[in-house]
């Protein structure tokens, strides 16, 4: 995953966010270790070549690494949506296409596996907001109905913190969840950060599969169908095209 800091993308932009490239300091450290690791590189190169991306993610892994899943397993269309709660472009996608996705989910035409990534942690004021928000989402996913899950997902994008500015602590995230009707137990789960570690593990698995499907170009928002990347836009038309693709 790259670590080179990029300029923030305004909320009105349709550009995707991508993990930053490694810093020059890390490059020097890796260079210093090159001699020590040369034998491992030879062996590792074989492993890497055997597991190189062929442009398709493992759908079995995607099914288990999602932060939450909305829609029937018998829906004729299933997509994997990759987002980060600190990503302005993701908030824009939710604003423009969220209702269309929800309608398709509720009508039984679409299943969406939501993968909440966390590579924008460092662009949050607290330094870990993406992970904590994903952990809160996981608490809601484990304890609440689908309608509440979708409402909380939308809520977190509606009140998205400014990049580098003050964000929400765990108690405040619990309060936001209360606003959409979660139980006391779910609020406690969020306030205690009980699912943050699990959310980070899911994010790591999901990001790996997204990289497999895109040749390593990880960005949010991204959508996969049958393990392969598809185009989206800041318009509900892409959702209508998706669910109408095989309805003839």
Overview of this protein structure:
Helix content is 51%, strand content 10%. By secondary structure, the chain is an alpha+beta fold. The chain is globular and about 45 Å long. The relative contact order is 0.19.
In short:
The protein is α+β, with helices and mostly antiparallel strands. The protein has nine helices and five strands. The protein is 51% helix and 10% strand.
Key words describing this protein structure:
248 residues, alpha+beta, five-stranded mixed β-sheet
* Poorly predicted segments: 1-15, 20-53
Query: What is the overall number of helices?
Result: 9
- The neighbouring-strand order within the major sheet is 1-3-2-4-5
Order of helices and strands: HHEEHEHHHHHEEH
Task: Note the overall shape.
Answer: globular
The major β-sheet equals: 5 strands, mixed
Structural class: alpha+beta
Which helices and strands appear, and what pairs or packs with what?
Blueprint: H1 24-50, H2 59-65, E1 68-70, E2 77-83, H3 88-106, E3 110-116, H4 129-143, H5 146-158, H6 170-179, H7 184-191, H8 196-214, E4 222-225, E5 228-230, H9 237-244
Parallel strand pairs: 2-3
Antiparallel strand pairs: 1-3, 2-4, 4-5
Helix pairs in contact: 2-8, 3-5, 3-9, 4-5, 4-6, 4-7, 4-8, 6-7
